[in-house]
UniProtKB/TrEMBL annotation:
<dbReference type="Pfam" id="PF01381">
    <property type="entry name" value="HTH_3"/>
</dbReference>
<protein>
    <recommendedName>
        <fullName>HTH cro/C1-type domain-containing protein</fullName>
    </recommendedName>
</protein>
<dbReference type="InterPro" id="IPR001387">
    <property type="entry name" value="Cro/C1-type_HTH"/>
</dbReference>
<dbReference type="InterPro" id="IPR010982">
    <property type="entry name" value="Lambda_DNA-bd_dom_sf"/>
</dbReference>
<feature type="domain" description="HTH cro/C1-type">
    <location>
        <begin position="8"/>
        <end position="63"/>
    </location>
</feature>
Amino acid sequence: MEKIGELIRSLRKAEKLSQQALAQQYGMSRATISGIENNTISEIGLRKVEAILNGFGYELAAIPRASRRPTLDTLRKVNFHG
């Protein structure tokens, strides 16, 4: 989420938009935009973040990490069967 906030801040600044202007555009408060950008908001709906990113021509996507740690279930299966 931290990287998304940084991206939104850089896109907003590139468009010379204030936090207030961006907030009004998406029906949010300036404090919400600030919280997203600074990763200080406790909970933010993905739809809000997605709407902002879409407005800047970006798409929100989930991509698997290159090196994933095994889950506890995976480790148990390996230990019991292998």
